[in-house]
Amino acid sequence: MTIIGTRIDGRLIHGQVANLWTTKLNISRIMVVDDDVVNSDIEKSGLKLACPPGVKLSVLTIEKAAANILAGKYDSQRLFIVAKRPAPILGLVERGVALPELNVGNMSQSPETRSVTRSVNVVDEDIRVFDELNAKGVKLIHQMVPGDTAKDFLPLLEKVR
């Protein structure tokens, strides 16, 4: 398995992902899975600038990301998958990508969200997707930075149901 980590982070690539996680896990490629960002040249340019030197970047649709992973395109690389919300991750799993664990890192606050932790805010659709991922055998954890202890995410989610 070449997928070293999978993370939800509304900021996609920034200090925690670009420096801490990439370094700690010795990542050689960051894959952003987002059907909207893939069509935004401005967002893609920003992601390229934020990507650490020596680390490759892919910004792909759910469909293309799953196809590339299943075709073994990244088998020689250490892949870190990042998405803003859980739905793209569920899309990968539904297309046959085996993801044993998902780190729910940062989901921004908005008027529609409810706070799970200081850094994770969800809407009802996110809760439904997290439940579905859990039902499909994906272990859900919450760990902001590598030095933090990983916590089981489902008990944290219970307080906002």
From TrEMBL:
Transmembrane segments: none
GO CC field: cytoplasm
Subcellular location: Cytoplasm
Keyword Transferase: yes
Domain (PTS EIIB type-4) ranges: 1-161
Protein name: PTS mannose transporter subunit IID
Biological process (GO), any one: phosphoenolpyruvate-dependent sugar phosphotransferase system
Keyword terms of this UniProt record: Cytoplasm, Kinase, Phosphotransferase system, Sugar transport, Transferase, Transport
Source organism: Streptococcus himalayensis
Entry keyword Iron-sulfur: no
Molecular function in Gene Ontology: kinase activity; protein-N(PI)-phosphohistidine-sugar phosphotransferase activity
Record Pfam families: PTSIIB_sorb
